[in-house]
Amino acid sequence: MGYDLDSFIDPSGTNSIKWEFMSLFAPNATEKAIPMWVADMDFPCAEPILAALHRRVDRQIFGYSTHRTAEYFRAVCGWYQHRFNWYVNSTDLVYSPGVVPALSYLIHILTEPGDGVIIQRPVYAPFSSVIEKQGRTLVNNPLVNRGGYYVMDFDDLERKAKEPGTKLMLLCSPHNPVGRVWKGDELKKLGQICLENDLLIISDEIHCDLVRKGIKHTPLVTLFPEHKNKIITATAPSKTFNIAGMHLSNIIIHDRKIRKKWLEYVSGQLRLSAPDPLAIVAAQAAYCLGEEWLEEVLAYLDNNISFLESYLQEHLPEARCTPLEGTYLAWVDLRAYGYTQEELKEKILEEAQVLIEEGTIFGEEGKGFIRINIACPINILKEGLKRIAGVLNPKGKEA
Ligand SMILES: Cc1ncc(COP(=O)(O)O)c(C=O)c1O
Q: What is the pTM of this model?
């Protein structure tokens, strides 16, 4: 179709947290700040989603709604089948207003206070808070940075999985922020260790569709068809199609007893069983008709990633960008510049007025790193990088 991904869409008046309310999160942000933090894209929405929403709005009915229709299940399960050759039975699919809330509900129903939950830091910050804020024990199995490429430490994982208090593993696949798309053999090893030690696994696969050309995402559960009752997969159209504000995600729970617990707690006690009617329409249109848009966006992201790499090489040559296999969140190692965490924050967030995520929010392993959201028109990316290079390497080559 040829989307214009270079043009910036004015977000004013749209209630955008990323653009309009950034000062809530970054109090020193000024009018000229460029937000390259929260994981929204700055691209136009897919046309089929817009068309479906327009048609739906014209129906004038916005009462309580349910997604439990054959059409919805066909759209969602059809996408998994088509993209990953992954058969999902619609009865296993439950609604959640978000993946993070789902992680929180699942930890609540599957573990007891004090139980150990394994995560692999540096990792998406809410992974830690959903564990700690519910009184569970965070068990860190840190990723290993091998010359800029992150791998899992299976010996450490095995040791921690064996500890009697450990009950659950929370996997980030693809991984935010290190950008790895785990290979089949890595997932196999991780799954075997968890299963041998009787751990349940929650696999957050929200970034599953956002992988670079030539890279393949494997849904963890497809590797363990015999043990699928021990694996819960969290997915959503939100990151893939840039509709996070619609608050609809699909959680796949194969085990009937766990599903029953989920329904009792989430639908029964919390009363969270009804998605927004517009979100249902958007998700259906996205999964049925949004693939062309996604492919265009993925190609654009590939180009942005190459641009980022060559820009850093030229203007911030000591920076190391972890090879980005998936997600649109670049993980950049700035340790060689020797700035303290405070100095990095002051320079990038305050002097340069570029809102990035500081590495330490993903765990102390992220010290000296930043995460940059590159899902934006290339001119915005260029300006953001120019400002960052200007403050970190002021004597460097003029951008
Ligand atoms: C790994 C991961 N999980 C979950 C989320 C957010 O999910 P939700 O907005 O559906 O709660 C994000 C957002 O960036 C993420 O990176």
A: 0.97
